[in-house]
Automatic annotation (TrEMBL):
Entries under Gene3D superfamilies matching the protein: P-loop containing nucleotide triphosphate hydrolases
Family the UniProt entry places it in: Belongs to the ABC transporter superfamily.
Pfam families assigned: ABC_tran (PF00005)
Name listed for the protein in its UniProt record: ABC transporter related protein
One GO cellular component term: plasma membrane
InterPro entries: AAA+_ATPase, ABC_transporter-like_ATP-bd, ABC_transporter_ATP-binding, P-loop_NTPase
Chain ranges of the ABC transporter domain: 9-235
Lineage: Bacteria, Pseudomonadati, Thermomicrobiota, Thermomicrobia, Sphaerobacterales
Record keywords: ATP-binding, Cell membrane, Membrane, Nodulation, Nucleotide-binding, Translocase, Transport
């Protein structure tokens, strides 16, 4: 992350109601330039609706937000050239090739067509560039969607479940790409169901539950706050014990073993974002 003082996204008491459903119910946060910010939560928590508002796809019921310094409602048209998005419901034209797809979008954004080749290279589609999209695998299509979203060199890139349905190696490639984009200064707002992915990629994450933010911090802070800190201790008689570091009785046990010189190894078990999620939402994803 290449942080700068000016936030790229600011959200204040943003809400979206559908009848009696409070899809997003007064959330506030900001995202710094170059930050990777994750929105996490159960199905229906309000993640997609939040991104849909920030990208001008749906109007908020209440609250304010800015993206790249512009108001998402009043200055929506100014935001469009500065952002891009990868959404699950986006389609590719199956009858075009990868290269033709990017040429088409380069024209649309008045970007030079030469950028298409660079992007195909970036997402590893150079060899398949002239094949029709309908022959692409799910992973290749997803990478093409990402390339397409980069055609206008967006300052803020919104990714809704970017690795959903990808095999592990395609997912890894995509995560690496996100990290590189962030390192080059692109601000990224993403949603994901994969806690390990959020942990690896995101500088900060917000947990949404029923349209509200229930926790917002760096993965490390959240893990320390909500995850269970424990250690696995191997003793001289080769017995293994798990001790909870925040349990005074366990701490005493550990201290006694240490004092008696019985401890061979200690491995600390850091909490995971999955633990955080369960602690906050009461049930696993
Ligand atoms: N166009 C709509 N009309 C009515 N209700 C909607 C609409 N869009 C979303 N909702 C409702 O708003 C709530 C939040 O939905 P949203 O899609 O934002 O959740 P999400 O966190 O993105 O979930 P998922 O992980 O399934 O994508 C849900 O209860 C959903 O049914």
């Amino acid at each position: 992350m290449t942080a700068s003082a000016t936030p790229m996204v600011t959200v204040e008491q943003l809400a979206k109601h559908y009848g009696s459903v409070r899809a997003v119910d007064g959330i506030s946060f900001s995202v710094a330039a170059g930050e990777v910010f994750g929105l996490l939560g159960h199905n229906g928590a309000g993640k997609t609706t939040t991104i849909r508002m920030l990208t001008g796809r749906t109007r908020p019921t209440a609250g304010q937000a800015t993206v790249a310094g512009y108001d998402i409602v009043a200055e929506r048209d100014k935001i469009k050239p500065l952002i891009n998005l990868v959404f699950e419901d986006q389609n590719l034209y199956e009858r075009l090739s990868g290269r033709e797809t990017l040429h088409f979008f380069a024209d649309l954004y008045q970007a030079p067509r030469s950028r298409a080749d660079d992007l195909l290279e970036l997402v590893g589609l150079t060899e398949a560039a002239d094949r029709k999209v309908k022959t692409y695998s799910t992973g290749m299509k997803q990478r093409l969607l990402v390339a397409r979203a980069l055609i206008n060199e967006p300052r803020v890139l919104f990714l809704d479940e970017p690795t959903r349905g990808l095999d592990p190696s395609s997912a890894r490639d995509l995560r690496d790409l996100v990290k590189n984009l962030s390192a080059q200064g692109t601000t990224i707002v993403l949603t994901t169901h994969y806690m390990e992915e959020a942990d690896e990629l995101c500088d900060r994450v917000a947990f949404l539950s029923q349209g509200k933010i229930v926790a917002l911090d760096t993965p490390r802070e959240l893990k320390l706050r909500y995850g269970q800190r424990s250690a696995t201790v191997l003793l001289d008689d080769r017995s293994e014990h798990t001790v909870r570091l925040d349990d005074p009785a366990d701490a005493d046990r550990l201290a006694a073993w240490m004092r008696d010189g019985r401890v061979l190894t200690i491995h600390s078990n850091e909490g995971t974002l999955e633990d955080v999620f369960i602690a906050l939402a009461g049930r696993p994803l």
